[in-house]
């Protein structure tokens, strides 16, 4: 006997259970003529009539009743096989868990895209996390790669990508941009991201203000960078941000680079060398090879 397509068994079982060509066709997303053709094909392959067609729908013949349980069993086995295959594939699918911060907002997504082009079967799960949290997760084995403010915790390996510095983000306005940092801070509220979710930036801002004896009381406005930039674009205040945010500023927001004593720190990629991961090492090679220093 010629092999039977699983869709013919599905049509047979569905029609037998629904007892109506119109209802079965609707469940199978078929037209009634298409369903009739599939049933006729199966009848030809099995060598007998499967249904009695009448005014009230379709009912199984004796022959159809004898085949129904086996057909339903085969159909269920097919569904179970596909579910099993998907489950195995999901478990076997490789994943890289990665953390990043504000200073790597631009570059990390580009590296991910390049990596996916080379290794499409590897899934990357990425989260915006403070540097301290990333390093803790790396040590615990819950993260494969982190992009953090240096220095790193003992036990972690790292590669410095570039130097970062602070800049004052403000509304693009001719008068405002002629001001020095203290004048701008006196004219507008100093907004900042929530220190509980962005402790490194809050620490750098406080250090800069103290080092330069600048007067300002930071106001925790939001824990989301997009919202903070929107507030600045609306003229609600100014904020100290890593200079690398210049790559995704709103059109009407400008950066004022301080002439005062500057605070600088290194941004690096970090990993746990005690944990072996072939895919992680592939990603690290891409980062190191494609490293383009950002000039603050």
UniProtKB/TrEMBL annotation:
Keyword tags: DNA-binding, Transcription, Transcription regulation
Sequence ranges assigned to domain HTH lysR-type in this UniProt record: 4-61
InterPro entries: LysR_HTH_N, LysR_subst-bd, WH-like_DNA-bd_sf, WH_DNA-bd_sf
CDD domains reported in the protein's UniProt record: PBP2_LTTR_aromatics_like
Pfam families per the UniProt record, alphabetical: HTH_1, LysR_substrate
Entry's family note: Belongs to the LysR transcriptional regulatory family.
PANTHER family hit by this protein: HTH-TYPE TRANSCRIPTIONAL REGULATOR CYNR, TRANSCRIPTIONAL DUAL REGULATOR HCAR-RELATED
Name of the protein: Transcriptional regulators, LysR family
């Amino acid at each position: 006997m010629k092999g039977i397509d699983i869709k013919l068994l599905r049509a047979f079982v569905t029609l037998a259970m629904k007892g109506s060509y119109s209802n079965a066709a609707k469940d199978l997303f078929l037209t009634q003529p298409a369903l009739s053709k599939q049933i006729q094909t199966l009848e030809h392959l099995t060598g007998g009539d499967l249904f009695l067609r009448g005014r009230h729908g379709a009912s199984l013949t004796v022959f159809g009743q004898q085949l129904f349980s086996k057909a339903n069993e085969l159909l269920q086995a097919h569904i179970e096989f596909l579910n099993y295959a998907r489950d195995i594939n999901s478990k076997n699918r490789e994943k890289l868990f990665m953390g990043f911060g504000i200073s790597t907002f631009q570059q990390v997504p580009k590296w991910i895209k390049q990596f996916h082009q080379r290794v499409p079967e590897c899934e990357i799960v990425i989260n915006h996390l403070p540097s301290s949290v990333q390093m803790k997760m790396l040590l615990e084995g819950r993260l494969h790669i982190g992009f953090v403010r240096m220095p790193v915790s003992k036990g972690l390996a790292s590669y410095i990508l570039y130097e970062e510095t602070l800049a004052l983000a403000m509304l693009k306005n001719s008068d405002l941009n002629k001001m020095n940092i203290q004048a701008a801070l006196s004219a507008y509220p100093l907004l900042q991201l929530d220190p509980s979710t962005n402790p490194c930036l809050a620490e750098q801002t406080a250090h800069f203000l103290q080092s330069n004896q600048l007067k300002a009381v930071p106001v925790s406005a939001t824990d989301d960078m997009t919202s903070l930039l929107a507030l600045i674009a609306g003229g609600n205040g100014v904020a100290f941000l890593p200079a690398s945010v210049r790559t995704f500023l709103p059109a009407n927001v400008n950066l004022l680079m301080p002439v005062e004593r500057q605070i600088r720190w290194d941004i690096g990629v970090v990993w746990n060398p005690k944990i072996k991961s072939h895919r992680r090492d592939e990603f690290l090679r891409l980062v190191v090879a494609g490293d383009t220093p950002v000039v603050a």
